[in-house]
Each structure stands twice: as structure tokens, then as C-alpha cells.
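So, can you check what follows?
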Amino acid sequence: MRILQIILFSWLISSAAFAQDDETAPATLPKVKPGEAVATFAGGCFWAQEEGFDQLKGVREVISGYAGGNVPNPTYQQVGTDKTGHAESVQVYYDPKVISYDELLTAFFAGHDPTTLNRQGPDRGRDYRSVAFYRTSAEKQAILAAIQRTNESKHYPNPVVTEVAPFSVFYPAEKYHQNYCKLHPEQPYIQSVSLPKVEKLRHAMQGKLKKEGIY
């Protein structure tokens, strides 16, 4: 079922035509600041993931991009063919003294459905799969423990199918994908798919939000 994606991509391209040409170029990854840590997750369309993580205290910046595949410097079009191995992902730059990796995992598992294989809502394909990428053995163990907690909580009727994968490389998505929820809050897909996921994350992370109250 790629009809929605094709329609959405056509809309994106037509919208981008009115922007500067470099909006279709990859975004620039921020430099990691002293004392800062980086985490990478994939949980369906990166627009909602980016917006959700960006609302957490201790998170300085979130970048939408692609990870988990074998094609260097992929484009949105290439990833959308589901042949690159990449998943739409986000890279989170955060202060571990303010928010822990375990708390990021709580937000991750709350902000999407980790029990649907290669699918998030209307979006289908391995590019929309759920993945938690680890950089250290401690992060791997934290992910496995979070999956166990999520399963034991019975919050979801089905077991978690999130992949636990070693981090390799993250490619930033095109500039026009960055901060997409904030820039296009009235876009139909944002209203019907992205914002409900953001609200799920916010509900689970009360007390850890930069701004409490209704989003």
C-alpha cells in the first residue's frame, strides 16, 4: 500500500518547488557538545518521532534521517522504494544528566506502536519498521529490558517486534523534512497520523516535557 506515500510525496515535491533549491539537500548533523549523548531510533514516519522527542526536557536537538540500511546517502525517494534497507529514523542529541537513556526508551515505546511489523498506521514497508539502535552493550541491555517491561505491562495487546540493532551510520534527511510537524501543523497527514502519536508520547512523559499542557 504505497498510494498514500506516493500522493504525500507528490505533495511534498510540489511544496518544495516553492522553497529554495537547497531545501532538497540533506540537513547538516549537529556537532555533539561536551557531556552530550546521542541516541537513534526508528518508529514509523520520522515527522512524529522528531516532534515527540524534541518536546522532552534535556533534548537539545532531533534530526530526521535514515538508518539501518546499506545504501550510502539515500534520498527520500530511494528509501520509499523499500529497497535500501533503511528505516525512517531520528537522531536525538540529549543531556544524560537531565534525561536518561531509559527515559528516552520510555518515550520511544510510547510514541509509536512497537507491536506492528513493518507498519505504523497507514504506512507500510520495512522503511517504517520499529528499531532501537544501540551504541554500547549497556544500551543494548537497556533496550532489551525496556522491551520486557513493555511486554509485561500489557499496554499493547500484542508482543513488541522492535528490532534491536547495532548503530552503524545515520544519514540526515532532506532539509524540508526537518521540523515538519511544527512547520506544517495543518497538513492532513500531520493532523490524522503524526500528532496523535506525539500526544501518546506526551501523555507517557508528563513531568519530563519542556512545556506541559495541551500541545
User: Anything to note?
Assistant: Residues 13-20 have pLDDT under 50 and may be disordered. The first strand starts at residue 37 and ends at 43. Residues 181 and 190 are 6 Å apart (CA to CA). The helical segments are 3-16, 46-54, 76-80, 101-110, 137-153, 180-183, 188-204.
